[in-house]
Design a protein that fits this description.
single chain; MetI-like fold; 12 helices
Length: 308
């Protein structure tokens, strides 16, 4: 019996090793290309940016001297344009985060309740997302500078604003275009989540006397919290990185009043300054801010999700 058991165990070991090697090979085949792509496109550039942020490299010369934390200190202490762009980006992110998700959720609830026109409105609201950001900016520049001033001549004087030339109004112009383009994408995510809410729960709430608002707040929203987590994450990510839209609409003006942090980094590196190391320090600061905020956002909201 003992020898028979050892023989079976000895026979099984090569088979187990073969299965493990096949599994490892399949992982390498499917995960390997994606990992290499991530390594080359994402990880290596981030590590490179981290290194250059501690140098005085101008992006062109062969020499680069290590300057330690000088770039980081200068960004916060001696660069008011960077501080202003950081504040503007935070303000822009906060406004877009709230308005985009509230409006998208509202539209999703309204459209989901109307089955006959559901497909039509989903298509209409999603279409702006199919237009690139820079094209959207050029389209709305035409609307703000040509169409709206023309309409103001027909008794709509409120439309005669310095939509892109006034520092205060330009902020709201950027918000309008951001919402116009981004709401549809978030709305589709919310509609998909709403379709997964059991009808029995909503019907039971109605039987218990819940109003439509109470039904939404106490039944629907807790059940779609996973979608809210995703949408908030995506909104934060896109808002902090916004560049094309602002570049196309205002170029950061007037007087750098609408300069977002990504545009400030771009100007520092490529628009005459050529302080590549300093620009990378700013980029790493932005990376750190986004990383911390999204970590706490996902952690907090994940804890509020309802297990289905």
């Amino acid at each position: 019996m003992g020898s028979t058991g050892r023989t079976k165990q000895h026979t099984a070991n090569p088979e187990i090793k073969k299965l493990k090697s096949q599994k490892l090979l399949s992982w390498a085949f499917f995960i390997g290309p994606a990992f290499i792509f991530y390594l080359v496109i994402m990880l290596i550039p981030v590590l490179g940016a981290g290194y250059y942020s501690f140098t005085d490299w101008n992006g062109l010369s062969q020499t680069k001297n290590l300057v330690g934390l000088d770039n980081y200190v200068e960004a916060f202490k001696n660069d008011p344009d960077f501080r202003n762009s950081l504040w503007f980006t935070l303000k822009y992110t906060a406004v877009v985060l709230v308005l985009q998700n509230v409006i998208a959720l509202f539209l999703a609830v309204m459209i989901e309740a109307r089955s006959r026109v559901k497909t039509f409105f989903r298509t209409v609201f999603f279409m702006p997302n199919m237009v690139s950001l820079i094209i959207s900016a050029f389209m709305w520049t035409f609307i703000f500078t040509i169409v709206l001033p023309e309409l103001s001549k027909y008794g709509l004087s409120i439309l005669n604003q310095g939509w892109l030339g006034d520092a205060d109004v330009a902020f709201y112009s950027i918000i309008i275009v951001s919402l116009w383009r981004g709401i549809g994408y978030m709305m589709i995510i919310y509609i998909a989540a709403l379709q997964g809410v059991p009808k029995q729960l909503k019907e039971a709430a109605v039987i218990d006397g819940a109003s439509p608002v109470q039904n939404l707040l106490r039944v629907t929203i807790p059940m779609i919290m996973h979608a809210i987590t995703i949408c908030v994450f995506l909104t934060l990510n896109e808002a902090f990185k916004v560049f094309d839209l602002v570049y196309g609409l205002t170029g950061g003006g007037p007087g750098r009043s609408t300069q977002v942090i990504a545009l400030n980094i771009y100007d520092e590196a490529f628009s005459g300054n050529f302080r590549y190391g300093f620009a990378n320090a700013k980029a790493m600061i932005l990376f750190g801010i986004v990383l911390v905020i999204t970590f706490f956002q996902v952690t907090i909201m994940k804890g509020k999700e309802v297990e289905s």
